[in-house]
Amino acid sequence: MSLDVYAADEQSDVAVAVERWSALARSVLVAEGITSDTEVSLLFVDEPTIASLNQRFLGRPGPTDVLAFPIEDEAERGGRFPDQGGSGPGVTTPDEARLLLLGDVVICPSVATRNAADHGVGIDDELALLVVHGILHLLGMDHEIEAEAERMEQREQQLLARYYRNAP
Question: Is the CB of residue 128 less than 8 Å from the CB of residue 164?
Fold first, then answer.
C-alpha cells in the first residue's frame, strides 16, 4: 500500500506547481506519522468554487483561501448488517489492507495571491502555508481557541522550515 496525495489544478487564474505542493503535502503527512495506506486529495480551485463550498459547508459567504474536509466517519460498511460486511467465518482481513481516506484540502490560488500581498510574502510562500495548514486540519488540529491556534501555528512553522524553506 502507499501514501497517495492526489492533486488537481481545477482553476486557471494562477499557475500552480501541482507536483511541488503534492510532495509538500506528502512530506507533512509522513512527518505527522502517516506513512502508508492513506489517501488525500489536494485541489486548487477558482473563487466561485471555493465560495460555493464555503457557503455550503461553513455558512460563510464569499471566497476563502483554504478549506479542509476531513473524512471523520469510518467508511460505510457493506454486506449483511449482523456481521458488518465480514467475509464469512474463518476469513480474516489484515488491518494493513484498509485504506484510510483522510480527506480533501481545497485551496484557492487567487485568494492566496491577494493574501500573499497583504502578508508581504510571495505566492509560493502563501501556497506552502495553505498546504501545510490544510493537512494539519485533516489531522485534527484547529485554531478555534488561542492555545490551539498557537500550537497549530508553531507546528506549521516547524514543518515549513523543514520541508519547504530547506527544500532543494
Answer: yes
Residue 108 · residue 66 · CB < 8 Å: yes
- 3-74+98-163 CATH choice from 1.10.3720.10, 3.40.390.30, 3.40.50.300, 3.30.200.20: 3.40.390.30
User: By three-state DSSP, how is residue 16 classified?
Assistant: coil
3-state SS class at 145 = coil
Q: DSSP letters of 138-154?
A: HTT---SSHHHHHHHHH
b/e for 112-136, b at 16 or more Cβ within 10 A? bbebbeeeeeebebbbbbbbbbbbb
Q: What is the pTM of this model?
A: 0.83
Per run of 10 residues, the mean pLDDT along the chain (length 168 residues) is: 90 96 96 90 98 96 96 47 42 53 96 96 96 96 91 96 80
Q: Could you tell me how many residues make up the chain?
A: 168
Please name which of 20, 38, 17 lies closest in space to residue 138, comparing C-alpha atoms.
38
* Residue type for position 6: Y
Query: What are the backbone angles phi and psi of residue 66, rounded to the nearest 5°?
Result: -150, 145
Strand 3-9 relative to strand 38-44, pairing: parallel
